[in-house]
Amino acid sequence: xxxxxxxxxxxxxxxxxxxxxxxxxxxxxxxxxxxxxxxxxxxxxxxxxxxxxxxxxxxxxxxxxxxxxxxxxxxxxxxxxxxxxxxxxxxxxxxxxxxxxxxxxxxxxxxxxxxxxxxxxxxxxxxxxxxxxxxxxxxxxxxxxxxxxxxxxxxxxxxxxxxxxxxxxxxxxxxxxxxxxxxxxxxxxxxxxxxxxxxxxxxxxxxxxxxxxxxxxxxxxxxxxxxxxxxxxxxxxxxxxxxxxxxxxxxxxxxxxxxxxxxxxxxxxxxxxxxxxxxxxxxxxxxxxxxxxxxxxxxxxxxxxxxxx
Length: 309
Hints:
alpha+beta; 11-stranded mixed β-sheet; elongated
């Protein structure tokens, strides 16, 4: 396997620098000319500032503002981060050793940097707080879902743990709070075909051979609400939310199903009542059984008015 070239700049805020490779063909006179054309969202004045400050580098070091264009060359720099509203909830570490770390993520915190969520992500927070620059998630959890995420501490072991999730040998269970329907026969296994189109927010169920399967169990009910255990046997986008909605009991706080609602990303009220509660697997390195349990609870069950208010 070809090794990824190590960047000549250190991480900043737990993030690697951006790398830009320059095309073999091009009529740019200087690297600056290429960057101005290549990075239309960055103003030419900002590119000049970075060059004069020595913050755009190649493998030999900082690039001069008038450095000639190098076909096939590469440069690195740190992108300016977007303004982010702090997610006002802590991430908890439930287990840590030299190989893996298991975190208990709060609602509204994304797993990895993407779009407008960069520093306010579980990965970047943990890298900075624990001084673990090589930390990487073995899988992901939706921003609005709380619960357990497995991270790999030792870079040499990443493949082994990520492969577990690709091969679906990890046993995961979730808890959810949703309306109680006395006419609904549970437990039941929901099977359907789910498709998720690029640039479309919501996934949907369509006719065809099922590619998603979830076991739904009712743990208890009171005051018109049910506490459910969900065991997915596949990992389709929004699978649990779609399957609960298809049963007529959409998860409380779901802003996508049955209807998409426009909720600002900086609003931290009425979180989706879905929790990744249990993570269980045979350790691919040691061969030992591992089982982790979330320390979180779903507020709509213990304090519905507090959650709704």
